[in-house]
Automatic annotation (TrEMBL), chain A:
<dbReference type="GO" id="GO:0016887">
    <property type="term" value="F:ATP hydrolysis activity"/>
</dbReference>
<keyword id="KW-0547">Nucleotide-binding</keyword>
<protein>
    <submittedName>
        <fullName>ABC transporter ATP-binding protein</fullName>
    </submittedName>
</protein>
<dbReference type="InterPro" id="IPR017871">
    <property type="entry name" value="ABC_transporter-like_CS"/>
</dbReference>
<keyword id="KW-0410">Iron transport</keyword>
<dbReference type="InterPro" id="IPR051535">
    <property type="entry name" value="Siderophore_ABC-ATPase"/>
</dbReference>
<dbReference type="GO" id="GO:0006826">
    <property type="term" value="P:iron ion transport"/>
</dbReference>
<keyword id="KW-1003">Cell membrane</keyword>
<keyword id="KW-0406">Ion transport</keyword>
UniProtKB/TrEMBL annotation, chain B:
<feature type="transmembrane region" description="Helical">
    <location>
        <begin position="35"/>
        <end position="65"/>
    </location>
</feature>
<dbReference type="InterPro" id="IPR000522">
    <property type="entry name" value="ABC_transptr_permease_BtuC"/>
</dbReference>
<feature type="transmembrane region" description="Helical">
    <location>
        <begin position="296"/>
        <end position="314"/>
    </location>
</feature>
<keyword id="KW-1003">Cell membrane</keyword>
<keyword id="KW-0812">Transmembrane</keyword>
<dbReference type="GO" id="GO:0033214">
    <property type="term" value="P:siderophore-iron import into cell"/>
</dbReference>
<dbReference type="Pfam" id="PF01032">
    <property type="entry name" value="FecCD"/>
</dbReference>
<comment type="similarity">
    <text>Belongs to the binding-protein-dependent transport system permease family. FecCD subfamily.</text>
</comment>
<keyword id="KW-0813">Transport</keyword>
Length: 268, 356
């Protein structure tokens, strides 16, 4: 397994408050990595550190053997795209206009918009089924449509590595699956490296090649979902009792959580 | 999302032409709006040259402009009316552009330099320089820049929390504006009566008594700033996004926003040095320009032109269109237009729950 993007003992936090402490992580190339963990365990913070949105106070993030924070921001942006948890579009902007802003890292003083950019933007719109919305205003769209538009902007950036912070939040079940299928296409067809924070353990188990389980700012365990997702891991990380069985559709681990009520089935 | 196609699938040429067509349409609209605004400014300038106590017809004014006027019309046009119109165009453009830079960069329609106390800082410093330091000419412009910059820096320091939160910036700015206004009032009441009336222009904004040398100095500064703004305008579409999205697209959001704000501060200072704090021009110009251009662009050029047009027309109204034949400084007229707009903005602004 090779890893262009690596975290080497990074410590991340805000205003002197440490969220992620001395963390090591190799992000496998051309694979889908899902980061899971309980609320406030540092998942989003880790993604922000990996994407150069937040500078580590100790350790370093390496991209292709270079310290990420020593590389020019625009150069990083041509290799890594980040979709934040709650991106904000300017008032009145149209879908095509917003998506074409994803081309910014590729445009310079002497290289402004070209027909290449139009083609790439059109590709991104087509891939996310938002071509028909091209001239609509972003604020008029539904939550699912809007999230697809933001994904389209990330696609238009044409980066090898894509980091997404809870891309399925605010989406219903159908749109969650559509989005994860789309990211899988991106990974399989283009060999993109994808890292995403997910809340739904079962979707993470199904769609990830590599699973990173976090708790309290550290990585509890990582590896293929089948190996990693055991009842004891889930108990350690989430403080949650569960039964792990097999997803009848994908064959991946299926986590059935156990609460205080409704435990009538035999074996529970 | 039926059959996602990633990569160069069939039909992407058609799709690309849809994208290109949309882009051309946006561009055409921006160019048309800009051209129409520029034409309206020319019309307003010519009208302003032909109005006034000395009965000069449109023909006389035009003749003087092209160097064929008699001595009277030359004097009236070049000494009295053209400086006034030029001041209106320059100061209006400076305020309009500064407002657009502030509002786009801070992603808040309320975050304009006149609401945030930056303009007040410039006018306070200008009054201070006039009354206490007894400087004149370019010195006033320098003082105005320093005053505006100090207010902006204070605001930045107080509002910064590892990033800029739009509404926080506005609240701190409003408080600072009140503080600076109070200090300005104190300065004026303390001053000698004649001095105070001379300094009054810095409190309301007026364009009646500017001279060519002053216009020349500030005009060159404004033109220089316009060139720098044209240079950074490429980044504005990205700075209109949130900090994380901007960084993800390779723009260091914090530093880039600070740079744009400094440019806006310089423009406010230049405009204030020339015409005083003409109320609300910075606040209203960009929203008008953006609604004309449409499509969520920051519409920098159109904002500058709308600013010019607003000041020109407001000055004409203040001079000639008020009942009873009285004439008032331009800042009072723009205040009358701007205040209701501000009320409307506050009344409708947070309905969506967004701060941009």
């Amino acid at each position: 397994m090779t890893a262009r993007l690596r975290a080497e003992g990074i410590t991340l936090g805000y205003d002197g408050r440490t969220i992620v402490d001395d963390l090591h992580l190799d992000v496998p190339d051309a694979a889908i990595t899902a980061i899971v963990g309980p609320n406030a365990c540092g998942k989003s913070t880790l993604v922000r550190g990996l994407g150069r949105l937040l500078k580590p106070s100790a350790g370093r993030v390496m991209l292709d053997g270079r310290d990420l924070n020593q590389i020019a921001p625009r150069e990083v942006a041509r290799t890594i795209a980040v979709l934040p948890q709650q991106p904000v579009a300017p008032d009145g902007v149209t879908v095509a206009d917003l998506v074409s802003r994803g081309r910014h890292p590729h445009q310079g003083w002497f290289r402004s918009r070209s027909s290449d950019d139009d083609r790439i933007v059109a590709d991104a719109l087509a891939a996310t089924a938002t071509l028909g919305l091209a001239d609509r205003r972003v604020e008029e769209l539904s939550g699912g449509q809007r999230q697809r538009v933001w994904i389209a902007m990330v696609l238009a950036q044409r980066s090898d590595i894509v980091l997404l912070d809870e891309p399925t939040t605010f989406l219903d079940a159908t749109h969650q699956l559509e989005l994860l299928d789309l990211l899988t296409d991106l990974n399989r067809d283009r060999g993109a490296t994808i890292v995403m924070v997910l809340h739904d353990l079962n979707l993470a188990a199904r769609y990830a090649d590599h699973l990173v389980v976090m708790s309290a700012g550290r990585i509890v365990t990582s590896g293929s979902p089948t190996k990693v997702l055991t009842a004891s891991t889930i108990s350690d990380a989430f403080d949650l009792d569960s039964v792990v069985t097999v997803d009848p559709v994908a064959g991946t681990p299926l986590i059935v959580p156990i609460g205080r009520h409704h435990r009538s089935a035999p074996g529970a | 999302m039926t059959t996602p196609v990633i990569g160069d699938g069939p039909g992407t040429t058609d799709a690309a032409s849809i994208v290109a067509e949309g882009r051309h349409r946006r561009r055409r609209r921006a160019v048309t709006v800009t051209a129409v605004l520029a034409a309206l400014i020319v019309v307003a300038v010519v009208v302003s040259l032909s109005l006034g106590a000395t009965g000069l017809g449109l023909g006389d004014a035009l003749a003087a402009l092209v160097g064929r006027g008699d001595r009277l019309s030359d004097f009236v046009v070049f000494r009295l009316r053209l400086p006034r119109a030029t001041t209106a165009v320059l100061a209006g453009a400076a305020f309009g552009l500064a407002g657009s830079l502030f509002q786009s960069t801070l992603r808040n329609p309320l975050a304009s330099p006149d609401i945030l106390g930056v303009t007040a800082g410039a006018s306070f410093a200008a009054v201070f320089a006039t009354l206490i330091l007894r400087v004149d000419g370019p010195g006033i412009a320098v003082a105005a820049f320093a005053g505006a910059l100090i207010v902006a820096a204070l605001m930045w320091a107080l509002a910064w929390r590892g990033g800029l939160v739009g509404y926080r910036f506005v609240l701190i700015g409003v408080a600072l504006a009140a503080l600076v206004q109070a200090a300005l009032g104190y300065l004026i009441t303390r001053a000698d009566v004649r001095d105070a009336s001379r300094a009054l222009v810095w409190t309301v904004g007026g364009i009646g008594d500017t001279s060519w040398p002053a216009i020349g100095v500030v005009g060159v500064a404004i033109l220089g700033l316009l060139i720098v703004v044209a240079g950074v305008s490429r980044r504005m579409p990205v700075l209109q996004l949130d900090d994380d999205s901007a960084r993800s697209l390779g723009v260091d959001a914090g530093r880039a926003r600070a740079g744009v704000i400094v440019l806006g501060v310089a423009l406010v200072a230049a405009g204030t040095a020339l015409a005083g704090p003409v109320a609300f021009v910075a606040l209203v110009s960009a929203p008008i320009a953006r609604s004309l251009v449409r499509g969520g662009a920051s519409a920098l050029a159109a904002s500058a032109l709308v600013g010019s047009l607003v000041v020109l027309v407001a000055d004409l109204v203040g001079q000639y269109a008020l009942p009873g034949g009285i004439s008032v400084p331009v800042g009072i007229v723009t205040g009358l237009i701007g205040a209701p707009y501000l009320l409307w903005l506050i009344a409708t602004g947070n309905r969506k729950g967004s701060d941009g």
